[in-house]
Design goal:
This protein is mainly α and 328 residues long. The protein contains 11 helices and 2 strands; from the N terminus they run H-H-H-H-E-E-H-H-H-H-H-H-H. Strand 1 and strand 2 form a beta hairpin. The protein is extended. The N and C termini lie far apart (131 Å).
Length: 328
């Protein structure tokens, strides 16, 4: 049974569609998206500035606007300034900070040439230090080490001092005798030797009435140059003896060579410190006193360069070999 079709039959042809045509042309404006919000202005440290934070939430949560925080900040600044002034006043009594900067003003070429000069000083000339005129054109000052090979510095003594301590402990470790107390003991012994030398030099300068503006720093620098020869002696002695210490013919030969080289270097270099040029203003009596004083200073310089350096270098360059247990 078929279901009857109750709908109307489809027409043979559909009527055409007519679209409405606008009579008046209207221009539609072009719409653009609004510009993105500008980021808050920042200062040099990357934090929002106070001006940009005034329109919204205050910067740092309003901490910098708090009067208590500002008072604490001012108090901290005043405390830091007072501490800096106290440090400068107390340290300047003994050592000038600007003077220390002068002694560390070195270059690579100066370090290499200075090492060569300490080990081979025999044909070096001249030994006098270079000076430059001051701002007024009258008073002169010594040039820094990077501009004057004959100038003392603190870089080489400090680096050689540290190298000596590390080298001594390294050799002890290779012999199987390293222990943590050895590092501090070696540093204490080396520092004590330098202090004894400085005490001897200061006592001799006091007894012989020797004065110099930068005397103490120069004496420390010249006393520390010995570690260059000690390091060479220790290395050559260990290599020559096969790790059995610095004894043997090669070790002793290296020791005496570095000792005489250092003594010759100190005689020439420390002449301007311990033997300053003085012109007697009086008659024959003053000239005689000046000659006697100069002779005493010369003897003191020879004693320091040969006797004191011989004992100190021998004490610091001793490297004993491994201990052999006794046979029972």
């Amino acid at each position: 049974m078929q279901r009857p079709n109750y709908g109307n039959p489809a027409p043979a042809h559909s009527p055409p569609l007519h679209h409405p045509v606008p009579q008046h042309v209207s221009t539609v404006p072009q719409l653009r998206s609004p510009p993105p919000p500008a980021p808050p202005s920042q200062n040099g440290y990357g934090y929002p500035s106070q001006q940009g934070a005034a329109y919204g939430q205050p910067a740092f949560g309003g901490i910098m606007n708090d009067s208590t925080a500002q008072m604490a900040f001012q108090f901290g600044q005043s405390g830091a300034k007072a501490g800096q002034q106290y440090l400068e006043q107390n340290v300047s009594r003994y050592v000038s900070i600007s003077a220390l900067k002068h002694y560390f003003n070195v270059s690579n070429s100066y370090v290499v040439n200075k090492l060569i000069l300490i080990l081979f000083p025999w044909r070096h000339k001249p030994w006098s230090r270079k000076t430059a005129l001051g701002p007024c054109g009258q008073e002169g000052y010594f040039l820094p080490p990077r501009d004057d090979l004959n100038s003392p510095d603190l870089y080489l003594p400090l680096m050689s001092f540290v190298t000596y301590i590390l080298l001594s402990t390294l050799l002890a470790g290779l012999r199987g005798e390293f222990h943590p107390e050895l590092l501090g003991g070696t540093a204490t012994a080396a520092f004590a030797v330098v202090l004894v030398e400085i005490g001897i030099l200061k006592l001799g300068c006091y007894l012989l009435s020797i004065t110099n503006d930068s005397q103490i720093v120069d004496l420390v620098a010249y006393s520390g140059f010995k570690f260059v020869g000690i390091i060479v002696t220790v290395i050559v002695g260990e290599l020559g003896s096969g790790g059995k210490g610095t004894g043997g013919y090669l070790g002793w030969a290296t020791f005496f060579y570095t000792f005489f080289a250092l003594a010759f270097f100190l005689l020439r270099s420390m002449k301007y410190v311990l033997l300053p040029e003085t012109t007697p203003s009086g008659g024959g009596g003053m000239a005689t006193t000046s000659r006697q004083r100069r002779a005493g200073r010369t003897q003191f310089l020879f004693g320091y360069a040969f006797v004191v350096q011989l004992l100190s270098m021998w004490a610091l360059s001793r490297q004993e070999g491994p201990k052999v247990p006794a046979k029972t």
